[in-house]
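Hey team,

Filing this mostly as a record. A colleague (T.K.) asked me to run one chain through the structure pipeline before their review meeting, and I want the input and output archived in the tracker in case anyone asks later how it was produced. No errors, nothing strange. Just documentation.

Input sequence:
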Amino acid sequence: MIPLQYHAQMLTDAHRMQSFSDAIAAVVRPGMHVLDLGAGTGVLSFFAAQQGARVTAVEREPGVFAAAQSALARNVGPAVTLVHADAREFTPSEPVDVVLCEMMHTGQLREKQIDVIGSFKQRYAAAFGGPLPRFVPEACVQAVQPVEQDFSFHGYHVPAPLFQDQFSLQPRTRELAPPAPYQAFFYNDPLPTSCDADLTFTAELTGECNALRIITKNLLAVQPGFPVPTTIDWLMGYLVVPLAQPVFLNTGQQVDVSFSYTPGAEIGALMASAGVTARPVRLPDAATSRRAAPLQQTA
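Output structure:
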């Protein structure tokens, strides 16, 4: 359960707020029934009510529930029905058109987004059959990047997980290679039971790979378009996790990155499974060296 003060921090995240406001405006229509699982302070329910929807919001943490109850009554009145219940167990009394669920952490760590939506889909199908409602977020894309991270703080060195503003320059981070995706899925499809990476990168800089940076982008709404669909996205803050065994890389050298953890696991589970292995540098043989050597001019 997330205390109220952390929900207040979410409210000050302008990118998060605008992205969800835009996505809900694109998906929700007047008269729809919207279910908000893990409503927090109720701001997503507020956005849905602004579009003319009838909203059922579910929140179990008592302090957060009380704050949401007061705020929703003041901002939207009876348009939102707030239920004090566990989102992992709640089944609506009638079908719904849209499900909002933002129980999300970078890397699908710590929070139970996949568990909540997965169990909801099972209960919903048992109660009403198909089709499933539309989910916001609709999809998730995850990427990882090998980096060299400065873990020294005022002369004190301590490798520890770090969160980074995704839109700010990070002078303490050297990107040794571009990020590469390791997972992508739609919530309407079968959901993953693990978050796995087994990737090979080519170093673009020389340096010590002592950390991995996790990047999570949520596709809040996917809109039909030609020639390609458009998306309303929420790029979450980056997570940098230190490696137990760093490796030194030369420019052009390949490095294998792997990890595996269960969605909702603590950050330590990712750190415990993460590993990088530098591939040996291939030196040219003598024949190749002779062919590659420049011709010498003779007088």
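Quick notes for T.K.: The chain has two domains: 4-102, 139-278. The longest helix spans residues 113-128.
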